[in-house]
Amino acid sequence: RAKNSSNRSIVQFEKKMAEEAAYRHQLEQDLRKAVSHGDLDLALQPQVVVQGEKLVGFEALARWQHPEFGAIRPDLFIEIAEQTGLICELGKQVLNRACRETALLNTQFDKSFRISVNLSSLQFQNENLVQFVEDACRSHGLAPEMLELEVTESLFLSNSEQTKTALAAIRGMGARIALDDFGTGYSSLSYLREFAIDRIKLDRSFIKDVSWSASDQRIVKGIISLAKSLDISTIAEGVETNQQREFLEECECDEIQGFYYGVPSSATDLSSLMKKGGERYAIHHLPDA
Length: 289
Ligand code: C2E
Ligand code: MG
Ligand code: MG
Ligand code: MG
Hints:
By secondary structure, this protein is of the alpha/beta class.
């Protein structure tokens, strides 16, 4: 009996694995189509200065609405895009669209919102990256000073000379570099002085329990003061509550991004919120509101 039931569970397990592999394969093919047709969407999430709670910019986040399966989690389709190399084309589209939509919002509301765009480490293997960034700004009329590129620590592991040159050129044109998900990767602190970085994005995993966890509080305080001493500014990701915000204010964190101030939304939705109630209205649009 025991043998039978364990055989059955192995068969079920194998069936499930085969189904998952088929699903993933399907997604891969459909993502290729979606990217080549330019079918991905863009969501913008507010970034807010802690002192005075002023909306200063947005992070651009890719969205994929699958015709059959609905919204696909970005973690999943970005991973597929990285594995298949589609991330390079996807990343270019996001960058172009982010520059265009931000330039439009800035014109419409007479503001100078910044835009942060995620770059995959794979995109740095393309020698034309720097030129592409420059062209994206120019063709959409966005000052490079309004553009921030988010990179992750994995970028620093390989071909560091080419990477250093590209980062320096990007900063040379006036754009900024942010280190995303800080604290979750290899976190060799030498990266902070070896590579030109303008700001650190504290990962959500440190923020999650920061209103009560004494050790997370010490880590967050420590990262912020380390950054300050190196003249690197800080933004906290994943801030959902006022207690978290208060703690970050106490630590003199510069900016905050999270559901507390707004979920990622389309430029159209943000624009109508701002038309209705100004920019303060746009940053207090909470998920259940
Ligand atoms: P990320 O760059 O760290 O982006 C922040 C993620 O945290 C986003 O997830 C955002 O929706 C989520 N988030 C923001 N505030 C909160 C909060 O208060 N609470 C919680 N629970 N989550 C919050 P999302 O949109 O699912 O994206 C996941 C990851 O996918 C991104 O993480 C980024 O690494 C990657 N990604 C998204 N778009 C692109 C892209 O255009 N290019 C590249 N290379 N990666 C992208
Ligand atoms: Mg990011
Ligand atoms: Mg992040
Ligand atoms: Mg993250």
